[in-house]
Fold this sequence. Notes:
eight-stranded antiparallel β-barrel; 16 strands; 57% strand
Amino acid sequence: MRYYTSIGKGDDSFRREIRFEERKDGLYVCLRRSEDDFQEAHEFRVDVSSRDRGHEMHVLVDGAGHDLCLNKRRGGYEILVGSERIEVDVVDERELLAKSITGSGPKGPQELRADMPGVVVSLDCEVGQVVAEAQTLLILEAMKMQNPISAEKGGKVVRLHVEAGQAVAAGDLLLTIE
């Protein structure tokens, strides 16, 4: 499976194509190609062992160990390595193909759901408010990390399904935008 990633934000961001395979030795092998130079390819042997229900991981990349914490967020992940926070947006090849056929954005009402269990820290929007694509709409705290939940497309907030201080489970409906 191929994945297309955007790593980081702003001027420091870069894009990569990454492909994962499982080989006979059982390790995942990742082929990474630069967005600018598709002839440049690197192969990494990767082994991942998960701790704490999948959020904390120990990753071996070509024999070098790395401890990290992985938090799922809409459209990608936030990776914590030591004190460094890295935002990674991920689209797989099927999603990319579907977007090219149907258009770039989601159609119809947008239901924002919790990616993980947590507590709603703040609501940064209200019913009737017009919001822009990628605008932060609420903050969800999970594992002592505050995760912004953003709009996938612009529109009008038509319903809030939660309030500040409320605990939510993964998959719970947070708000609806039309």
